[in-house]
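Usage

Read records sequentially. Each one opens with the input sequence:
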Amino acid sequence: MSYERRPIGPEEDLQDLMDAFGELFEGAYMGELRSLGSCEEQVFSFDVEYADLMEHDVIRDHLVDDIERFMLTGEQVLNDRFRQHMKAPCRLVLRLAGLPEERRRPLDSLRMRDRGRLFTFDVAVTGTTPPIGYLQRATYTCRVPGCGETVQVDQRLAREREKPSSCQACMQRMFDGLPDNDEGEYIRRMAEQRGMFGDFGLVTEDLRYIDVQYLSVVDVVPSGKGPWGQGRHTWTAVVDEDHVGSYPVGSLLRLHATVNVDHLPERTFAKDTRRCLLLRVEGIEPLDDAAHVDDVQWSNGPPV
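and closes with the structure output:
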């Protein structure tokens, strides 16, 4: 059993993903980044074509593994590359565009086995909520005297706030000079320091909030030869940042979204085991055929 020191920094596979994103943005998208240097918006959606992502082996493999970490990592690298061209404060939000036909699904066909997968949906907006805030990233500092290590933790939507379980800097200092394979000394030091590695305080001035909004959506079936069809059930999609407030009731959209699992809104006890599906929107494009439900004919009346 070895207790040798571990380097502090991004995991190797995460670093590979960051490097791959850097190559992509510095190559295919550098012209767009330069042209956005004078952007006056505080937040701006930056579309990346799905086909461009699929051409890179490392990016393609991570896209199917963990879409949430994938998008956060890509957005971090995107803004790092954009900073050198930025003339006014502006943060870019990574969006997906141009998903292929094989990714298209009807909402009413979704099941729990689709959790975590990325699809594209043709929908009509039938309802909206007011904008609300979401704590996307929290910053903590170690309160052990003489340490002060800071750690950022990405938070999940509508879940209990998470904090670090241990301070890697404190642990590293404790194991400095520990001989390899000295299991007895390892156990002794751990017993002496039990409970000392998780003493973190929240840095309230470094909390990162973003705007989110819930949309009620239904399937639509575009038809160039006759009336459009629509789905039977209403689903919930979450949009964020500059998408909030941009799509009123009646909008016809193509959503690129991951399928998440959420608590039932009407649950009456805390440990209810039932869950519902929720769409986390990663990109939005207008439907080519129409922009609003009033622009087309419907087989069973308009959905709103």
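Summary fields computed downstream for this record:
- The chain has a mean pLDDT of 84.
- Residues 136-206 form one domain.
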